[in-house]
Amino acid sequence: MTAEITLYHTPDYASTIIRLALEELALPHTIAPLDPEAGDLASPAYRAVNPLGLMPAMMTPDGPIFETAAILLWLVHHTGRLGAGPTDPDRAAFLSWLFFTANTLHVTMMQLIHPHRAAGDAGIAAVEARAFAALNLQAGHLETLITTKAPRWLSAAEPGVLGYYLGILLRWPAMMPEDPALRFDLRPFPALKAVLAAHEARPAALRVAEMDELGPTPFTNPRF
Amino acid sequence: MYTLHYAPDNASLIVRLVLDGAGIPYRTALVDRASRAQDGAAYRRLNPTGLIPTLETPDGPIAETGAILLWLADTHQLGPTASAPERPTFLQWLFFLSNTAHADLRQLFYPHQYAPADGIAAHFDILSARMLGHFRLLDAAIARHPRLFAAASPLGVYSVTLTRWAALYPEGGRRWLDLAAFPALHALARAQEARVETPVVARAEGLGPHPFTRPEAPNPPEGAVL
Question: Is residue A108 located within the same domain as residue A63?
C-alpha cells in the first residue's frame, strides 16, 4: 500500500509538513510537483483531488485526502507512529491539541502572514497586531502543555506529527511580517523551542530541508 | 459516565446531538457564560483555552468539538474505522468543518476580535462570501457521501449546526444564508429535525420547534448563549 502514496507538493508550502511526516515514517511515496504560480491549484485535475484548491492533498490507496491535520492523523492511524493512535488512552489530549493547532493556531498564523485577507487592505495593521498577540497567547498554551504535562506526542525525545506541524506553522510568521516587531519569536517559549529544535535536527527533517531548500535550522532560526 | 461541559446553543450542541443520537449516556455540566465561568480556574484546568465544549472521559478531558467527535466516533463506532476506505474522506471533511467552516463562522460572530472597527463591514463581506463557498462545498460533499453525512452522525450534525448559527448570529447582523439554495444541506436539516432526540435537546437548550429549518433566537431554561 505504501508505494501508492502521492503527495502534491510545492517546497515550503503546507505540503512540506506532510513531506516531513512521510520522510520520518520512511513511507515510500511519489512527489507530484505543483506550481501555484502557473495556476496548478485551479486545474480541474487538482480540483478533483481537492475541491478547495489548496495544499496539501495526498493520494492514498483509499483515494484522495486533503486538510493538513486530516492527512497527519491518517498517517498516524495507518502506521501507529508519530502520535496517539485510535486506541491509545492518551489520544484524548493528542486530538484536542491537534485540532487546536489546526483550527486556532494555524488560522491565526495565516492572519499574521496574509493580513489583507481578513478585512481588506485598510485593516492590515490592526489584523496583524491582533494576530501577533493571539499567536503568542496560543504558543503560550503549548509551552504550558509541554512544561506541565510533558506529552510524548509533543516532545524533544521522540518525533511526532504535531512537532513537524508546529515547526512549519511557526516558521513562516518568524520570517514573513514586514515589521520585525511583528515577527514571531520562539525565545519566550523555551520548552516549545527545544521540541522544535529536536525535530529539525532529525535525519528526516535534514533531508526535507535540503530537498525543499529550507536552510539548516528551518524551525528555530528560519530563513528563505 | 461522560460529562459534557456545555452552554446553550454553543458548540457543545453538536456533541450533545451526536451523543443523544447514538444513545450514549452522559451528564451535562453548565458552563455559566453570564459569570464567565469559562475563564474561571476550574474550567481552565479542564480546558486551558477556555473554549466550550469539553467532554470529560475515563481517558481525561477532551477539548475541541472536532476532537470530541473523532474520539466518540472511534470509541463508539460512529464513523469509518481507522483502516476503512472511507476514512480519508471522513477525516478531511471533519477537519474542513473544524478549521475552515467553523473557524470562519466564528470570525463572523466575533468580528471585533479579528478586524479593526473601520474594517468590520469589509470583514463581514469577505467572511460571508467565504462561508457561502464553504457551504457549496459541503452541499456537494453531502450529496456525494450521504452515509458519512447522515443525520445524527458527527459530520451531519456539525454541518447543519453551522447552518443554524449562520442564520442566527451575530444577532442583528445582515442575513446572508438561504438554506433552500443548498438542497443537500436543506434535506439534512429536515432529517436532523425529524430525529427523536432533536426536540429533546432543543427543549433542554431553548432552541424552538424548528432549530435547523427555521431557527429562532434561543430562550434557554438555564445558562447564557453568549
Answer: no
